[in-house]
What we know:
Elements: H1 18-31, E1 37-39, E2 46-47, E3 50-53, E4 58-60, H2 62-76, E5 80-82, H3 90-99, E6 103-106, H4 114-123, E7 128-131, H5 133-136, H6 139-151, E8 155-159, H7 169-176, E9 181-183, H8 189-204, E10 215-216
Parallel strand pairs: 1-5, 5-6, 6-7, 7-8, 8-9, 9-10
Antiparallel strand pairs: 2-3, 3-4
Helix pairs in contact: 2-3, 4-6, 7-8
Amino acid sequence: MKSKKKNREGGWISPFDDIKTFDIISKITEENEAALGIDIAASGLYKDGKYYYRNLNKKLDSNDQLEFVRDLIKTYKLFYVEDPFHEEDFKSFSELTKKVKCLIVGDDLFATNEQRLELGVEQGSANAIIIKPNQAGTISRTLKTVSEATKAKYTTIVSHRSADTLDTFISDLAVGIESPLIKCGIYGKERSIKLKRLIEIWDSLENPVMNKPKVFI
């Protein structure tokens, strides 16, 4: 059964509920020896102290959300979980990070902001950070946040922005800061052109070295 709906980035919207979709994708990743990661974007699910999952008919408080995400990580062997809580819940990010062994990633939590990252580091909130130059506003601010993340041993993930353009700068940035991960988008030319730029950079190096993990999301 193929969905006829797409999200604003061009990706297909599953016609199944979240759990059924996880089952399908998990099987595909296992068959192809790939790692499975998710962006929960929990700020978009959060209202009046609860997380609302409409297609699962679930309404979860912060503790329930934590246990729900822990179960997803364990069941589907998740490698990467982005924004599992709303953007001001540093405490829950910290609790989850202590209880699981995977990348707990802050995007809305940190917004490529040095001060927010410092607050997160103090509390042990997450262990990885999305790096978006458009969030920081300038390259110098972006690099300050990267420096803070590196000092704190947070994994950096250079990322596109929603409804991105054909600009390839993030590919150069990811290589320049030696980021082990990059998010290039879901679908279309705006994704493929960034991957092509990475290949161009690779081919231009005299002695390229593959630093693991090398994952393109």
